[in-house]
Amino acid sequence: MADDAYLFLLPDRHPQLGAALAAVGMVECAESPAVHGWLQAHNVSASSERVRIVPADAERLIPEDAERLPVPLSEEEILRVGKECAPQSVTDMESELLEFRETTQDWEGLVHRALTAGIPAPRIVQLTGLDPQDIGRLTV
């Protein structure tokens, strides 16, 4: 069987590429000893957002420092992986960007309310992914 796709571990703080393995649905290779061993060796589960999959022809998208594993897929699985990896339409992407802007527009007010409610700054950083210096600037 040919290698039809690549599983890879998305490095921390890297833009999401490919599709999450869990989003593709059940793929037969996920039950193989090779994939189980690979997941165990990297201490991740198949449901982790870091475990990504791309079709073999998209291997160039995999970050150089990412751990990868070639896997065989059925025709139907190849179609599902391709569909999950397909880029969003421009209008969908623009809508997402607008939602992001609306969500982040008053981040300072949200952080201030969280601090006032007693949530420690390190926890706010952990939950939001904001820069600790930005949070620190609001606590002064």
Protein architecture, described:
With 140 residues, the protein is of the alpha+beta class. The protein has two domains: 81 residues, no CATH class; 50 residues, no CATH class. It contains seven helices and four strands; from the N terminus they run E-E-H-H-E-E-H-H-H-H-H. The longest helix is centred in the last third of the chain and has 15 residues. Helix 6 packs antiparallel against helix 7.
For this structure, the quaternary state is single chain
Envelope shape: elongated
Distance between the termini: 61 Å
Total helical elements: 7
Quickly give the structural class.
alpha+beta
Q: In terms of topology, how is this protein built?
A:
Elements: E1 5-9, E2 19-20, H1 21-24, H2 33-41, E3 51-55, E4 68-71, H3 75-85, H4 90-104, H5 107-116, H6 121-128, H7 132-139
Antiparallel strand pairs: 1-3, 1-4, 2-3
Helix pairs in contact: 6-7
